[in-house]
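Problem 12. The chain below contains 434 residues. Write out its predicted structure in token notation.
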Amino acid sequence: MAVKGNTVVFRTLCFLIILHFVIALINAATITEMETLHTSLFTGYNKNVRPITNQNSAINVNIYMTIKSIREFDEVDERFSFVAALLLVWTDEKLQWDPSVNGGIEQLTVSFGDVWVPEMTLSSPSSKGSTIGKSTDRIRVDQFGQMEWIPAGLIESTCSVNAKKFPFDTQSCDTSFTSLGYKSHEVNLLAGMPDISFDAYAPHTLWDVTGSKVNVITVATGNESEITFTIKLKRDSTFAVINIIMPISILSMLNVLVFLLVPESGERIGYCITTLLAIAVYMTIVNDLLPQTSKPVPLITYKLFIDLFISALIVCVTILNMRLYSRDDSYIVPAWLKSVYRFLTCTRSKISRIGNGEVEPVIVISSKNSKQIIPDSKSGYSEKEKIHELEKSEGEGNLITWKKISYMVDWIVLFTSIFMSLLNVIIFVGLAKS
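Solution.
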């Protein structure tokens, strides 16, 4: 009984399959029926007339966009190009038929030049006006007159660049289209989706897509509608950080190390000038990567200017400090400069003053004997000269010379420059990442 039941089911299934193919063969449209339908539809068809019965009404055109890849984003020329496909859907009331009397035909494919199309033009071109669509395009139409047109290709649009936070910047690029030659009450552009489709998108090496949106607006004249596709991009900052930010920061740190070179080496001036030129070269490289009319001015431009200023200041201080180092000891170091030196080196003066302003006698104890040094008030020396003589009599270890003052300046400028360079980097990164 089970075998007989399976045989019945198998026979029934085979009968249904054969019946399906027979019906499909009977309903299959022949080439003659296709040509007849095409001739009947396009007899008297005028593609220059909007295909809507009520000519006072607007034809609604739904527009979708799918982006395949980003080809180029030139920040200097503010040019944005990408490969994309548009899907335009509208209803042509002239191209409608009954499939039951036309061999079951439900869809047709027609040439771009044979039917009315809402010709679209790029209203934000990078160089010259660009009309969407080619004569080789094909358009599908169904029995209800719904038209589907998919123009695809390279779209080159302008994009206003905001490079304030370069290389941690984000960009928002608008690509706008309008129906050429039609007012908004004749052709009404509608957004098919609230955003752009990236289902077939191939990622870009430098820019990441963070979002998109679609808006339909009325242009300034108030007569034409315009659809705008907005793409939000975020720069991959790895390349710029490794090749620009890090080298500049390293150069800034190397620049301050000039004060650790001994003056006798004779390399100080050449070293700091070479570093200054290297920073200037990097400043030129960065300026070539950014638009010249960028507003606001990129933060990295201010950072590079501060680095250049610090480097130039180091060159000036190095030159002046070399003069201090080479100054003859016959020129007495000013008392205030000695006080600064003693304060920074945490040393105390062995020379004190008595109430009447004269120099108090000083006892100097040496390894062999002790002696009292009393300045001769009748020798004609000034008070500063007497103090200088007393310091000399105490030994070279206690004498504050111009070389010691030069070393003091080296350390002061070294730590000050390091602090300024680090502060410059921290402020730049903080503002750019915020």
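Discussion. The longest helix spans residues 402-433. Students who got a different answer should revisit the alignment rule from Section 12.3.
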